């Protein structure tokens, strides 16, 4: 078992998958998204070496096109040891700098645009898996099989506590 502090222990045979979908404001070759495109290799390298990182889906340009009809829509998929590791990378590492600049490069999409779910250790979710989980979250709200950053569940399917509250009560 792993885990400490306010987070429940998670069986080491479970890992946290995350996927987020976004729509670029401009095509990849456009100078207005050059800062994002230029950072991809650095950010991916940072993720690959982050504590708690397990795996990420690798595509030719660092992200997966979601729709043949709209090549500006991209999907990012990764697997982490647990939520604290994902959170530390996303918001506390140099990646957080780019997260804060996302409005420069991406349009606002219907929310949620990020989905989390637990997978068996060694599982590598496909884009179809990720999109199905996101659709489930959008349709049913947070459940143990597809949940959000704000309303999380532990690897056993129980709501996680955040700052003295259940995550799904916020």
Helix content: 25-40%
Uncertain segments are 1-10
Report the major sheet: 6 strands, antiparallel
- Helix- and strand-based class? alpha+beta
CATH architectural name = 2-Layer Sandwich
Order of helices and strands: EHEEEHHHEEHEE
> Into how many domains do the coordinates divide?
1
Return the CATH class. Answer: Alpha Beta
Count every beta strand, where a strand is a DSSP E run of 2 or more residues.
8
CATH topology: Alpha-Beta Plaits
Approximate strand percentage: 15-25%
Would you write up a description of this structure?
The protein is of the alpha+beta class and 170 residues long. It has a single domain (14-165), classed as 2-Layer Sandwich (Alpha-Beta Plaits). The chain is built from five helices and eight strands, in the order βαβββαααββαββ. It has helices at residues 34-48, 83-92, 95-100, 102-105, 127-140, and strands at 14-24, 53-56, 64-65, 73-80, 106-107, 114-120, 161-162, 165-166. Strands 1, 2, 3, 4, 5 and 6 form a six-stranded antiparallel beta sheet that branches. It has a two-stranded antiparallel sheet with strand order 7-8. InterPro entries: Dimeric_a/b-barrel (IPR011008), DUF3291 (IPR021708). This is DUF3291 domain-containing protein.
């Amino acid at each position: 078992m792993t885990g400490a502090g306010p987070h429940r222990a998670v069986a080491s045979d479970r890992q946290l998958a995350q996927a987020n979908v976004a729509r670029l404001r401009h095509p990849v070759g456009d100078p207005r998204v050059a800062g994002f495109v230029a950072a991809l290799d650095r950010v991916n390298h940072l993720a690959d070496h982050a504590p708690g990182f397990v795996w990420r889906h690798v595509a030719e340009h660092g992200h997966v096109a979601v729709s043949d009809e709209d090549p500006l829509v991209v999907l990012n998929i990764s697997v982490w040891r647990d939520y604290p590791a994902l959170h530390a990378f996303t918001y506390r590492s140099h990646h957080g700098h780019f997260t804060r600049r996302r409005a420069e490069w991406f349009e606002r999409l219907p929310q949620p645009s990020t989905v989390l779910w637990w997978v068996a250790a060694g599982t590598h979710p496909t884009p179809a898996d990720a999109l199905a989980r996101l659709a489930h979250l959008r349709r049913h709200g947070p459940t143990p099989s597809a949940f959000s950053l704000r309303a999380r569940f532990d690897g056993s399917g129980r709501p996680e506590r955040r700052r003295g509250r259940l995550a799904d009560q916020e």
